[in-house]
Write a sequence for this structure.
């Protein structure tokens, strides 16, 4: 299986901050990388697919970049509703695997 | 809008078989570029993909669970199901069903709300 490692595991930020989350794959996954947001008690929600493609309806303050083994999710101007846990997921090789998550908390 | 809903027992005894069903509404499970997946989430292992089934009946399972997992599809009811045998406390988790879109890329675009399954005697 391809291992996905996110950093940091958690971070504290304020409304209006720019936040960056990193995801590293154990081997090249080209651009087969998705990002999800999960709020407590809810299922994960797709934000970005193919490393940098924003899902329809997702605010433009979310963006993704990267290729190969290193990827980044950036949230510009953090909003109150963005405090959540974020997961990356590789879609290069079945069986699909997820990162361990990054919890974004209010400072 | 596609909606998925998990159903099944919330408590399963060790060594028994966990059985869950996902009912899909707002779209047919036999049409389109989709697979139908099960994913679980536990405190210890985070999000873990269990397996998927295509509308044609092709399955793919997580190798770590393959010997214990069966996913099946009932087109007449627009449902798909999960069976996980010989469960232990390590199988305690929130279980999600999800639709996997497959084209140039694959992603999970719709999820059920999740159902907590506890393995305990």
């Amino acid at each position: 299986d391809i291992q996905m490692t996110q950093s940091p595991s958690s971070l504290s930020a304020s409304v209006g901050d720019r936040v960056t989350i990193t995801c590293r794959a154990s081997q090249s996954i080209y651009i087969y990388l998705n990002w999800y947001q999960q709020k407590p008690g809810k299922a994960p929600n797709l934000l970005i697919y193919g490393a940098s493609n924003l899902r329809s309806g997702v605010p433009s303050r979310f963006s993704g970049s990267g290729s190969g083994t290193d990827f980044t999710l950036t949230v510009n101007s953090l909003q109150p509703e963005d405090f959540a846990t974020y997961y990356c997921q590789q879609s290069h090789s079945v069986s699909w695997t997820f990162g361990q998550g990054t919890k974004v908390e209010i400072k | 809008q596609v909606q998925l809903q998990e159903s099944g027992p919330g408590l399963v005894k060790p060594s028994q078989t966990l059985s869950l069903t996902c009912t899909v509404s707002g779209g047919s499970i036999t049409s389109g570029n989709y697979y139908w997946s099960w994913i679980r989430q536990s405190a210890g292992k985070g999000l873990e993909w269990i397996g998927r089934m295509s509308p044609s009946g092709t399955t793919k399972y997580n190798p770590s669970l393959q010997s214990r997992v069966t996913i099946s599809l009932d087109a007449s009811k627009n449902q798909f199901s999960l069976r996980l045998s010989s469960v232990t406390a390590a199988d305690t988790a929130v279980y999600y069903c999800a639709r996997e879109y497959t084209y140039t890329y694959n992603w999970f675009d719709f999820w059920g709300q999740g159902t907590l399954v506890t393995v305990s005697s």
In short: The CA atoms of residues 90 and 96 of chain A lie 6 Å apart. The mean pLDDT of chain A is 97.
